[in-house]
Amino acid sequence: MGTGAAVTALDAVREHLGVEGVHAYRLGSSVFVVSLPGGGQVVAKHTEAAAAEAAGLRWLREPGDVALPAVHGNDGEWVITDYVAPGAPSVAAAEAFGRGLAALHLRGAPAFGAPPPGGPADAWIGLAPMRNEPCATWAEFYAAHRVEPYLRSARDQGLFTADQAAVVTAVCDRLPDLAGPPEPPARLHGDAWSGNVHWSADGPVHLIDPAAHGGHRETDLAMLRLFGTPLLDHILDAYTSAAADAGAPLADGWRDRVGLHQLFPLLVHTTLFGGGYAAQTLAAARSAG
């Protein structure tokens, strides 16, 4: 987007905050930082996911367990949030984040696949559409609304052969046995890869760009591992200790199920970007099964 989009970002800030932004600069292809009169900045993001993102941020932020940007407005096209200045990773922030994430997950959700309150069923994960549909079990939800739609898309694009697709299908068929002991639905960020773990200048880790829903807490932990979150061992050690202290320790074998929970994001990347992600998806499916 060029200058016109920056002007539109200023218009969106005027509409939702009732003030004239001083200046807007582009942070991403459709994301702008807008400076406000008297100091302070907000982020104005133009996205089809605006309604889902706003609902997710509010739901995840409500209990105060983990820092997330406050939402100042959303109209289905633009979402206006706090700007959080970036900082450097630190052990203290990593450990606090791990403890907070454990508490957030334990806040629960109405069902596996439930969208955030007020959020649409048809949501997004990054650039990809994502359906939030309440289901009785995590295995049913994960197969029907996460893995299988993207497997069909990847197969239709010729990214998997029939035999390769069958490897992933076999995992879906065995999900009730592979998923570990039953757990209640957790309140998930849903897209907690390293790029959405924002180390802030004022200390706490902020989660951004959620794909929030009711799910399995091991999914967020697997996402943290997928693309190399800094200080991950400190985050996970603090998480597991906090979960155990709360009387809800992670089930035995959770580290062995990382590949299972990474199937969905890897399939999303396969359908969007192709390339080596198809091979990574197959490796994850084989490790899961």
UniProtKB/TrEMBL annotation:
Give a Pfam family name.
Fructosamin_kin
Sorted keywords for this record are: Kinase, Transferase
Name the InterPro entries on file: Fructo-/Ketosamine-3-kinase (IPR016477), Kinase-like_dom_sf (IPR011009)
Tell me, what is one Gene Ontology molecular-function annotation carried by this entry? Answer: kinase activity
Taxonomically, the superkingdom here is Bacteria
User: Is Hydrolase there in the keyword field?
Assistant: no
Q: Family membership, please give it.
A: Belongs to the fructosamine kinase family.
Q: Which PANTHER family match?
A: FRUCTOSAMINE 3 KINASE-RELATED PROTEIN, PROTEIN-RIBULOSAMINE 3-KINASE
Entry protein name: Fructosamine kinase
Q: List the taxonomic lineage.
A: Bacteria, Bacillati, Actinomycetota, Actinomycetes, Pseudonocardiales
